[in-house]
C-alpha cells in the first residue's frame, strides 16, 4: 500500500477514535455495508439481464435447439475465468461464508468481491438453472469482511457486518427488509439481541432503499391478493405443507446425489461437457428451467400457465389440463436436477431462487389437482403458488420464519399469514426431522465447523486446536535406556508425561513419571532397562485435522485424562491439556457473549 494512502488511513483512524464511539461507528458501517450489498445485487441483476437481452436480440431465441448450446457456452466462459483468472476452486457461496465465520474469523478473500459479479451472470445469463441471491450475498459478505479488516474491526463485529451484508443483499433483491433480517438470524445463527438487531435493521433499510433508487418501484412479483384465506381450505394447506416437505427432502437428497455422481469426473472439462449437455437437454424439454425463473413464477401468479410453460414439444396437447399438470410437476422434479447439474458442471449461483421456482410449480400443481378432482372443491391457484414457495423455502433452507415473512412482504400484505404459517411450519418440522442439515450446512456440520444457535457448540466451533496444543514435552525413544531417559529427558523436563516416538516421530505411546518413580534411584537398571518396558497406550488420541473441538472435549470427558496426545498421520505433534482447553473455552465464551 502506498505511503500516502497509509498516512491518510492513519489520520482517519485517529479522527474516528477521537470523535466516533465504537457503537456509532458500527451503525455507520452497517448502513454502508447495506448500501454496497444492495449495489452488488443491483449490479448482478443488471449484468445478467443485459446478457439475456443480448442473446434474445442476437439469436432467434425461440428456437429450442439453441437451448442446448447456450449453457455450455456460459459454463465454458466460467471455466476459463476460474482457470486463468480466479485460479482457485469455486465454493458454494453461502457455505463458504459460514466457514469463514466459524473457522476464519470472518475473513473473506478480496477476490470474492468481484468474482461472483462475473461468473454468476455468465452462468445464469446463458441459461444455468440457478439463482443470483447466493452470489449477491457472497459479494456483499466479501465487501463487509474487507471493510471490517480495513478499519480493524474485531472478528465478532466483522461477523455481524457479514450478516448485515446478507440482509442488505436480500432486502435489495426482494424488497423485503423484515425477511432479510430474519434470514440473517436463521441462516447465520446470529443471536437476535438489540446489539445485533439495530445494525441488521439499518443494513436492511439501506439495501432496500438502494433497490428503490436504481430499480424504482419495479418488483419481482407483480401480484396482489384478491382471494383471502378461507378456513375451509385449512386441510388443503396442511396437505400442501406435507407435499412441500416431501419435495424439500427430495431437493436436498437430489442435490447431494448429483454432486456425488459428478465426483468421478476429475477433469473440470468433462464435468462441463457432461453437465452442460444435460442442462441443454432439460431446457429443450422444459424451457422454463432456463435461468432463474422469475418470469415463470409471475406467469403462474397471473394464472397464465401456457405462458409459464412456454414452447415445449407438447404444445399440441396444452388444452388438456392433465398434460399441463404433468408438465408443471415435471418442473418440480427437474428444477432441482437442473440447478444441481449447473453447479456440479462448474457454474456459479444460489439455491434460494430455484427453491422458490420449484415451490411455485408444486403449489400450482396441488391447486390444479384440487380444482380438477371432480369433487366440487375450489381453491385459489395463485395463493397456492405463493404458499408453495414458502413451504419449499422453509423445508430446504430450514428457515420457516424467512419463508413466512418473505412471501408476506412480496405480496404487499399479511392476508395469507395463517396459511403461510400452517404450510411453512409443517414443511419445516417434517424436513428437519428427516434431514438434519441443509445444503449449506451439511458438510460443515460433519467436519464440526458449523456455527449454530447452541451457544456451547458455537463456542467450541470457534475455538482453534492450534491455540491449545502444547509442545514443551520431552520425547523419548523406545530404544533409550532408563539412564538416558532420566538424564536427557526427566531431568530437563517440567512435565510429568513423556511421549514415546520412533526415529520418524511416529507416536508409540506415553510414559508417566509415576510409571518410573520407583525405579528412578535403582542404578542397576539404568543400563539394562529400556524405555519400551515402561511404555503404555495413551487413554485416547486427538487426531489433528480430523477431530473437531466438540470431539476433543468429548474425548476428555470419556477418558478422564488430563492430557491427550495430538497426532497427525500417525506422527506426534504435542499434547492438549484439559486445564488449557477449559481456559481457552472460558476465554472464547466471554468474547462470544460480550
TrEMBL record:
Keyword rRNA processing among record annotations: no
Q: Which domain of life is it from?
A: Bacteria
Q: What is its main location?
A: membrane
Matches recorded under Pfam families: CBS (PF00571), Voltage_CLC (PF00654)
Q: What are the CBS domain coordinates in residue numbering? A: 469-531
Q: Which SUPFAM superfamilies match?
A: CBS-domain pair, Clc chloride channel
Keyword annotations for this protein? CBS domain, Chloride, Chloride channel, Ion channel, Ion transport, Membrane, Transmembrane, Transmembrane helix, Transport
Q: Which residues cross the membrane?
A: 24-44, 64-82, 113-140, 160-185, 197-215, 235-258, 270-290, 317-337, 344-366, 386-407, 414-431
What does the record say about its membrane topology?
Multi-pass membrane protein
Give the matching CDD domains.
Answer: CBS_pair_SF (cd02205), Voltage_gated_ClC (cd00400)
Q: Which PROSITE patterns match?
A: CBS
This entry carries the following GO cellular component terms, namely: chloride channel complex
Residues of the signal peptide: none
**MF GO annotations:** chloride channel activity
User: Which InterPro entries does UniProt cross-reference here?
Assistant: CBS_dom, CBS_dom_sf, Cl-channel_core, ClC, ClC-type_chloride_channel
Location comes to: Membrane
Asked whether the UniProt record includes Transmembrane among its keywords, one would answer yes
| Protein known as | Chloride channel protein, CIC family
Which species?
Maribacter ulvicola
Q: What is the lineage of its organism?
A: Bacteria, Pseudomonadati, Bacteroidota, Flavobacteriia, Flavobacteriales
Amino acid at each position: 500500500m502506498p505511503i500516502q494512502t497509509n498516512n491518510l488511513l492513519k489520520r482517519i483512524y485517529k479522527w474516528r477514535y477521537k470523535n466516533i464511539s465504537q457503537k456509532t461507528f458500527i451503525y455507520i458501517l452497517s448502513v454502508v455495508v447495506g448500501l454496497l450489498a444492495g449495489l452488488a445485487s443491483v449490479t448482478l441483476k443488471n449484468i445478467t439481464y443485459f446478457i439475456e437481452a443480448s442473446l434474445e436480440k442476437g439469436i432467434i431465441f425461440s428456437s429450442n435447439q439453441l437451448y442446448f448450446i447456450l449453457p455450455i457456452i456460459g459454463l465454458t466462459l466460467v471455466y476459463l475465468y476460474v482457470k486463468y483468472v480466479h485460479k482457485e476452486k469455486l465454493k458454494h457461496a453461502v457455505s463458504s461464508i459460514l466457514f469463514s465465520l466459524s473457522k476464519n474469523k470472518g475473513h473473506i478473500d478480496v477476490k470474492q468481491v468481484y468474482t461472483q459479479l462475473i461468473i454468476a451472470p455468465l452462468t445464469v445469463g446463458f441459461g444455468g438453472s440457478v439463482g443470483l441471491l447466493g452470489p449477491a450475498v457472497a459479494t456483499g459478505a466479501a465487501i463487509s469482511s474487507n471493510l471490517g479488516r480495513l478499519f480493524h474491526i474485531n472478528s465478532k463485529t466483522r461477523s455481524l457486518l457479514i450478516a448485515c451484508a446478507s440482509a442488505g443483499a436480500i432486502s435489495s433483491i426482494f424488497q423485503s427488509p423484515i425477511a432479510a433480517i430474519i434470514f440473517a438470524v436463521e441462516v447465520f445463527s446470529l443471536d437476535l439481541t438489540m446489539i445485533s438487531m439495530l445494525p441488521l435493521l439499518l443494513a436492511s433499510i439501506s439495501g432496500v432503499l438502494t433497490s428503490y433508487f436504481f430499480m424504482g418501484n419495479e418488483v419481482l412479483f407483480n401480484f396482489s391478493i384478491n382471494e383471502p384465506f378461507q378456513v375451509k381450505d385449512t386441510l388443503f394447506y396442511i396437505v400442501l405443507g406435507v407435499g412441500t416437505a416431501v419435495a424439500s427432502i427430495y431437493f436436498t437428497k437430489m442435490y447431494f446425489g448429483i454432486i456425488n455422481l459428478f465426483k468421478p469426473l476429475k477433469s473440470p472439462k468433462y464435468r462441463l461437457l457432461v453437465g452442460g449437455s444435460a442442462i441443454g437437454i432439460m431446457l429443450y424439454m422444459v424451457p422454463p428451467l432456463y435461468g432463474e425463473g422469475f418470469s415463470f413464477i409471475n406467469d403462474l401468479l397471473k394464472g397464465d400457465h401456457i405462458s409459464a410453460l412456454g414452447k415445449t414439444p407438447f404444445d399440441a396437447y396444452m388444452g388438456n389440463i392433465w398434460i399441463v399438470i404433468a408438465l408443471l410437476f415435471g418442473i418440480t422434479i427437474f428444477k432441482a436436477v437442473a440447478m444441481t447439474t449447473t453447479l456440479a458442471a462448474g457454474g456459479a449461483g444460489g439455491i434460494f431462487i430455484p427453491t422458490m421456482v420449484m415451490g411455485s410449480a408444486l403449489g400450482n400443481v396441488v391447486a390444479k389437482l384440487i380444482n380438477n378432482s371432480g369433487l366440487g372443491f375450489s381453491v385459489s391457484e395463485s395463493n397456492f403458488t405463493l404458499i408453495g414457495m414458502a413451504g419449499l423455502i422453509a423445508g430446504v433452507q430450514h428457515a420457516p420464519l424467512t419463508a413466512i415473512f418473505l412471501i408476506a412482504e412480496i405480496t404487499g400484505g399479511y392476508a395469507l399469514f395463517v396459511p403461510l404459517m400452517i404450510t411453512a411450519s409443517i414443511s419445516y418440522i417434517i424436513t428437519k426431522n428427516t434431514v438434519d442439515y441443509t445444503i449449506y450446512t451439511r458438510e460443515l456440520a460433519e467436519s464440526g465447523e458449523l456455527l449454530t444457535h447452541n451457544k456451547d457448540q458455537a463456542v467450541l466451533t470457534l475455538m482453534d486446536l492450534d491455540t491449545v496444543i502444547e509442545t514443551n514435552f520431552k520425547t523419548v525413544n523406545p530404544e533409550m535406556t532408563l539412564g538416558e531417559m532420566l538424564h536427557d529427558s526427566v531431568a530437563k523436563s517440567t512435565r510429568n508425561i513423556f511421549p514415546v516416538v520412533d526415529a520418524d516421530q511416529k507416536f508409540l505411546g506415553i510414559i508417566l513419571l509415576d510409571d518410573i518413580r520407583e525405579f528412578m534411584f535403582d542404578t542397576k537398571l539404568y543400563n539394562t532397562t529400556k524405555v519400551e518396558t515402561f511404555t503404555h497406550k495413551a487413554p485416547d488420541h486427538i487426531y489433528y485435522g480430523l477431530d473437531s473441538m466438540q470431539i476433543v472435549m468429548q474425548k476428555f470427558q470419556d477418558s478422564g485424562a488430563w492430557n491427550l496426545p495430538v497426532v497427525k498421520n500417525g506422527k506426534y505433534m504435542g499434547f492438549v491439556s484439559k486445564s488449557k482447553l477449559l481456559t481457552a473455552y472460558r476465554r472464547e465464551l466471554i468474547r462470544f457473549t460480550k
